[in-house]
């Protein structure tokens, strides 16, 4: 994962500009970060573990520099493994994964590798190829499609031949101290912006949005350099300019954390999104007979709820897949709905790469407009919930459910929208009551090692979302099941002595209500500690812990029952003193496969 940036500027304070850009890129990883600036023909390096704000202490002056924010894939979190890396006259920052890095390291067995990172092999090879070029017999072949800096053209072609995996890389070279060199291979995005005053490159165009209104995207397999007022891209040099769709840099949050802000404002945000989806957006008129729905994490789970509505209302068969597990069935997969908050998730983007058959129609349920996914699909259905900052998704997931619910209505030619405002009012009500209503349940759950979340029907994906949120925020082992699956194995886990609690999502409107009453008794008969989340908790015998919910129609229950799941995860994380908006080992957008 990671985010990289490179800037050449006429002013001497390139460090501050790189720092501002890294703040935008932090959603791509915050394990450690660093900046390298060329000053007096040498590199000034500043590296820190943790988030970008740690870098603010000592800026070096300079007109050219590169920066990086890291999500560790190879090598532990340490200053040693923090980019930029320097070797001789070169400095490097990298986003992506070099899949054959250990073979390459073995090839240079005598070389003293300084880091545990895969990136270091790019640096070493680049240096070797630049040196190799110097000793090459120069031929006078046509160089029109080569980079004017021939040794780099040679090195980039050799890197493409020898490196496997996905990589976006920026280099500084003391031999060309007015240029930032770059190369892109695979899914890792890169965009550049150039004017007379500056030239810049970054993993996400938003990181350049304080410098420019438009960017040029670097395509897979291209390389080149930027310098003040000038750039070269090879092969092909045909890249079009596009405007940066700036999402308002939200600085104001009404709570200590973005998570709580985004959790609390969901009803308001969803009603705004509903308004926009109805009034400012033209729905694609598609008549699919089979839909492949794909996504990762919370997006995948929102897709599962969408499948329920589309199959129920529009009677259209849906295949739901985690992006990484999606298999293209030639001739069948004609309509593919790709769900993503960031629009930069590599596993989801890789599906586009795997679609050979061009007849396929792709629809992107995307929140970040201007993202790679939003620019790569045939149709976009925006989520319209505004920028989501907290890594653990709340409003984007409920927003994705909203746009999927509306699409299911449209595909079926029905209109249940009038019920949505009532749903938003009930969401607002339970958000206000949860702090009071959930106290006991949070006490119980914060004193157990294992949590099981059970549900039936269209709430099974919500149980999985609850388990996901508890894992990513509270770092507590949580598993979800369909309550019907219990007796097929998981019931063996239940016993009264274990440090565990079993949470049931049980709306009385469910056509499976009676079966849910039995499932709860099944667990109670094994001595399980049961927690009921329902509008009629009193209907369950011998229940000690419950959260009273408003009544809600079965089909719309996912919008409401996801809230106590988000809240429980948040409160358990607060109890443990965890970083709420930046959970350990995660990033807001997973840009490597
Ligand atoms: C959810 O809280 C997580 N941040 C994660 O599972 C996320 O949903 C997943 O990585 C997909 O991200 P996307 O929607 O940006 O593609």
Automatic annotation (TrEMBL):
SUPFAM superfamilies: N-terminal nucleophile aminohydrolases (Ntn hydrolases), SIS domain. Residues 2-229 form the Glutamine amidotransferase type-2 domain. Keywords: Aminotransferase, Glutamine amidotransferase, Repeat, Transferase. Gene3D superfamilies: Glucose-6-phosphate isomerase like protein, domain 1 (3.40.50.10490), Glutamine Phosphoribosylpyrophosphate, subunit 1, domain 1 (3.60.20.10). Residues 273-419, 441-583 form the SIS domain. It catalyses: D-fructose 6-phosphate + L-glutamine = D-glucosamine 6-phosphate + L-glutamate. GO terms for molecular function: carbohydrate derivative binding; glutamine-fructose-6-phosphate transaminase (isomerizing) activity. It is an enzyme of class 2 (transferase). PANTHER family: GLUCOSAMINE--FRUCTOSE-6-PHOSPHATE AMINOTRANSFERASE, ISOMERIZING, GLUTAMINE--FRUCTOSE-6-PHOSPHATE TRANSAMINASE (ISOMERIZING). It comes from Candidatus Cytomitobacter primus. Its EC number is 2.6.1.16. One of its GO terms (biological process) is fructose 6-phosphate metabolic process. This is Glutamine--fructose-6-phosphate aminotransferase [isomerizing].
